[in-house]
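Cross-check.
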Amino acid sequence: MSISFSQHGRADQIWHKLQTANRWLHHDRLKGYRFLGSIRLSKDDANILLDMVRDSFSNVRPFTFATLVDRFSRHDPQEYWIQLTTLALSEYAYYEDSCAFWDGVCTRFKLQNTQGTQKTLREILDRGFGLLGLVENRRRNRYVSTLWLQSGIPQQNLKHFAQLLQEISQEYGWWEITHAEPEDLSQMMYEFCLKHYPQWGKLITFLKSSYVENNDSVEPISGQLLQGIAIVALELERRGQSPKILEDENQQEQFLQSYCLPSNFFLRSWKNLIDVLTPQNYNYNVKRRSIGSRKRPLILMLDIADSMDIQLCLPPQMIWQQGWNSFQGTYCKIYEHGWEGTIPQSKDLDLEIPALFQAVSSISEEWKWQLKSHTKEVLAEWQCERVASDFPVLIFDAWTGDRLLTSNGLKGNTEIICFFANGTQMELSKGIELLDSFVPCSISGWRGQQVMLTTAQAQLTFRFPNSTQTIQWSQLQSQYPQLRGLKLKGKQPAYLEIPTVWYPPSPVETSIKVLVEDLANRKILTAPDEIIQLKPSSNWQSILLTHWVTQPGSYAVQLWINGDSSMQTLRERWSEQFEVKSSFELSEAPTCLLVAVCDSNQQPIKTPLMVSTLVDFWLEDITLKGLWALEEIQFLINNEEISKTYQKQASNFGSVNISLATWRDVLPESNLYALSYQRRGGVLQRLLAMSAEATVNFVWENQALHLSGLLPRQSYFLTFWNVLTPQTPAEKRSITVLPTQDTVVIPLSDLFGIFHVQLGHSTQTLQDLGWWCGISQISDLSLPDELSDYLFEYCMNLFENQPVETFVTEVRQLKLDLDAETVQQAITALEGQTSYLPDWLDRTLLKQKLQSLLLPKAPPKIIPPVKVFQPSPPKELTYLVALERNTSTTRKAFNQRFAVELKKSRLESSIQLQKDKILPEYILVKLNSQEQLPALKDIVQGIGSGINTAIKLTEWKR
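Predicted model, tokenized:
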């Protein structure tokens, strides 16, 4: 029996019969935050619903939105028929596999696929999205895109999507994905899928729908979806929870709501992603690929940090475009700038273009840069929005240097710099303060003025020779948190102090979740579910970050509401990255750039000058030159406990002399003296320091070195010589000691190897700290892929405590050219008791191996070739190598050692390792004849002993 929406109350009955109000998990969310896919109809129910819609539309002529409304809405004032049709089309997008969406829909509804039919269905969807309060995609083709968005990924593509995510996460890592731009992720996913799986047509269509390519109106849905999944993966790992909780709808909703995900994030089925989200035993020592930036446009900016020139800037980017295959390995150039490069040999690599800057000296109708090949063919093009002919004015943010466009007036940016031609007059209304009436401009015939907005709203008026224009300027009343603190001018947020988050007024008590990340060290500083309670207030309230941020570095802070309430101010996740600098990190001190420090012979010297004895300190004679005439300088002399301050005035020539002998008796005897100076308004500068030999104590603990007894404001460094890579120079790391630090902690978790560690100081010889190795066990050890076969054997010899004789053989094959002093120092340090080495490493054996590195090189032994029997006629045989511990690491170790042993025995041509394409985890060996089997068994048995696993040979027959 046919069911029609035109029957009175029928659509209402169907809506409630399907129990969507109870089954729709998002029905109580705020409008604009609901996903229709959370209804989760079965395919059979979806087909029933589609049949209802088809039958209802079958007799409507003409098929227009107005006719449908006239036919159905008078019987259905709540317009449930529109909601049901929207649901039906969403279910069709999820279950059906037709790539041409509108063709498939019209066929399913038995309608002709015309522009009029599509227009009618789009109008139904437009009304349905509003009635249901759905999350929407605002791109041009937003109807189909929103339907795809409602369930995340169509059903038939879930397995493919899971496989794609598995490979992407292994190549890039979840951390990199969570901190990348969604636009970059969308591009990366689309290009990755297109390259590796071009046959996945519908998935590629979905990925392409959110691929941002010179089109800012496209929302990066796929990038937001991938980023949300990455956030879930990291959170599960951090909380120690199993991904299987996502299979249960209630646990899934509870978990996902507890962490604020991108607003355009929804995934209907998590079943295929359980294995993808299960934590893998990744080797974090392997450097992962970075997510390259997409093609970015040419922009205008003001160089506020240096020259104050107006510049054309091409941001750094990595690009590869279709059609470049014929130009691989050839020369290319951006002629407008002069940058030159080479197209990569492989399309797997992108062309990397660094940040390019060019000062603008004249106004152009169109700024355009082109990348051209060696044949002058245009490979890529960038354009910058020109200066409007009817409004020849350029406006920049005075703090960031960003260009501000005025099509909708100016909002926020309380301090700006306006540039215009000399014949133009700029008039300021009340509420605008003039900070600088003449700012030089790099454009010939132009000048600038710097102004600041002091009231809620004001206006700028520009009078040109033939016209007048007025720009409305208003403060942006932000209802989002703000980061405030002592900030440096520049594009990237950098603070001289730990900033504070200020939260906007809220009429109700607010429960805020906080996440603070240390970006440099890839650490989350806040505890899981860190919550701050804010009371109702009509004023902005502060959230201190000093609870988690305690030292300079790069950080990110995120805030979101704990729970869901229409009264909350912050309805989405707010995040901002920032950098904290300290005074000793600033590369320049503007007030001291011209000051020169000279010794008693009036020769310039570098500061701070370090001396090692009391006599040397008190005999120093120092002169400061380049000061202002008669300028007063403050000097600070101090020891470990007491400080004395003195004022001295510079001469008429801007110089001042300090003879330390005159201050000899002002301080008690000490092992530490220091002399500093400070200009008015400047920072304290160290001139001279004396330090006796300090006793440095150290402790190896928690994958870190804890140093105490270091003198503050001194320059120390650590050297790490890795015996696994003996020819590589020792790695050097600088240490800065703050006055308030008793102990300095140097993390060592990023070091892979067995290291001899030394502490250095600019005035002292290197001090041995002993040996350190952070590898607690070697059962699942994974060595870097780039190791050669010989170096791999050398490292495994050390890890497995193999005999010295074998070690000597491996060293000879490497042909090392070592520094004897470095090796001798390492041997001496190993004899002490300060080494921190794991129990599995035999120290006595390690010492003997190091001593063998100092022995004269002996000529390599000539291994007589093994006689290979050639039966006639030959009969090829294949054997399966069955490893008891068949892990990827064990297989790799076996393969590398097997190749080396075959080379030693001259059996490469008779015994060959085979790679099975269908079963890659199987190791197969092909023999030319049965006569090679004994030699193969000997080789395999020796390797099995070396890698500590049993190996069995079985004849292989397909």
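Confidence is low (pLDDT under 50) at residues 565-569, 586-593, 859-863, 866-874. Residues 332 and 376 are 8 Å apart (CA to CA). Passed to J.P. for a second look.
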